[in-house]
Specification:
Family: Belongs to the binding-protein-dependent transport system permease family.
Number of helices: 16
Keywords: Cell inner membrane, Cell membrane, Membrane, Transmembrane, Transmembrane helix, Transport
Low-confidence stretches: none
Largest sheet: 2 strands, antiparallel
Helix content: 55-70%
Subcellular location: Cell inner membrane; Cell membrane
Radius of gyration: 24 Å
Membrane topology: Multi-pass membrane protein
Mean pLDDT: 83
Distance between the termini: 27 Å
CATH architecture of the largest domain: Orthogonal Bundle
Strand content: under 5%
Number of domains: 2
InterPro entries: MetI-like (IPR000515), MetI-like_sf (IPR035906)
Order of helices and strands: HHHHHHHHHHEEHHHHHH
CATH topology of the largest domain: MetI-like fold
CATH class of the largest domain: Mainly Alpha
Structural class: mainly alpha
Length: 398
């Protein structure tokens, strides 16, 4: 996105002054794209730093997130070290966001876009094409190798010390489906409820921030986005400790062991994604449309319901799909809140399967289902966004 938003005239001016190749990238392109690089680096650091599922599945316990989980689950909920580690996790996450703010502070990266958005495309020489394809293929191989290995494990019979499985079968998928129907149903329920709440809350916050003059409205945006700085395992531990002694009326059970708390944790974790989509959609809705409706006698609520929300549909749907797809495979927060296998979501089911050698094939099959869910969600979200852009462009032309 940062590269796409660079003013092309800046690149053209540098080329006219003799800058080309690496010099052009180092002196012009990279500095202008710095906001995107810094934001991406901060988000990647936070996501890797708070990842719990990967270390647990690989049996790597000497990291902060697994240690926080193991201290609470093995020693007990009153173990102080679990909370100390949780505070350290939050501190490092906030520190990464603060560092990204310091890098950007006092610098202006704005461009006027008068030369057309995005860098100019050019034809590559044959040698450059070979090098470019080589880099792309290498990156694809690194990125897709876990998915390929997961697929082979899901259809393999025995796979131990050979490059490929000894045989192939679909029995793992049959076993997965027989044992995982509750996981799938629970995931649809939790992720669907979380995504619905996310777009409702995200739409409300977006309207308050962008369309009202309420004092402190920016802090509402900051607080909603701050969920990115709270690792999932820390959120789970916090909910577990807070609601462990709070009983649900008429059910006579702790709120921390009720499935609703899982959906609530997923809602908080994915709210920033839906909020950004809703805010982007609302920013594209002209305030003049609301003013015109109100001048014709429509109340504020009616203008929102009849004009604003319908025009935000593309962004709302994209936010819903993104929140649903990512919540469906969330493990870090939910692993602390699952009280019984009957209430387990899909990601926790994968974790349970992978605990025994005999269950790894079925666990891999369930993992492939998770990959498909995320892939479909990503593609569908992109289709919705592109379709919404085309409709808006066509509307402006007419």
């Amino acid at each position: 996105a940062s590269l796409r938003n660079i003013d092309r005239s800046m690149e053209e001016a540098a080329q006219n002054l003799g800058a080309h190749g690496l010099r052009l990238f180092r002196r012009v392109v990279f500095p202008l794209a710095t906001p995107g690089y810094v934001a991406g680096a901060a988000l990647v650091f936070i996501k890797v730093f708070d990842d719990l599922g990967t270390p647990l599945l690989l049996n790597v316990n000497n990291m902060l997130a697994p240690q926080a989980y193991l201290r609470i689950t093995s020693v007990g909920i009153s173990d102080p070290m679990g909370y100390v580690i949780s505070v350290i996790l939050v501190a490092f996450s906030i520190l990464s966001l603060w560092a990204s703010f310091l890098v950007m502070r006092g610098k202006d990266y704005a461009t006027v876009q008068k030369g057309g958005g995005g860098l100019a495309k050019r034809d590559l020489a044959p040698r450059e094409k070979v090098l470019a394809y080589g880099v792309v293929l290498f990156i694809l191989a690194v990125v897709l190798s876990p998915h390929i290995g997961l697929f082979l494990l899901s259809i393999g019979t025995i796979w131990s010390f050979a490059p490929l499985p000894d045989g192939y079968t679909l029995a793992n998928y049959a076993r997965m489906w027989e044992a995982s129907q509750d996981y799938v149903v629970n995931t649809i329920l939790y992720a669907g409820l979380a995504a619905t709440l996310d777009v409702l809350i995200g739409t409300a916050i977006a309207y308050i921030v962008l369309r009202t003059g309420i004092a402190g409205r920016k802090w509402l945006d900051y607080l909603a986005t701050a969920a990115l700085a709270v690792p999932g395992v820390v959120l789970g531990i916090g909910y577990l400790r807070t609601f462990q002694d709070v009983n649900v009326p008429f059910l006579d059970k702790p709120l921390a062991s009720w499935w609703v708390i899982i959906a609530l944790a997923l809602t908080i974790r994915r709210l920033p994604y839906a909020l950004r989509a809703c805010m982007a959609a609302l920013q594209q809705v002209s305030l003049a449309l609301e003013e015109a409706a109100e001048s014709l006698g429509a109340t504020k609520l009616r203008s929102i319901r009849k004009i604003v929300v319908p025009l935000m549909t593309g962004g709302i749907l994209a936010g819903f799909v993104t929140s649903f797809a990512t919540a469906a495979v969330e493990l870090s927060a939910t692993i602390m809140l699952v009280s019984s296998d009957r209430d387990s979501p899909l990601a926790y089911g994968i974790y349970l399967f992978m605990q025994t050698p005999s269950g790894r094939g079925a666990g891999a099959a369930l993992g492939m289902l998770a990959v498909v869910i995320v892939a479909l969600g990503t593609v569908l979200s992109q289709i919705i966004i592109e379709r919404d852009k085309k409709l808006r462009t066509a509307g402006r032309e007419h």
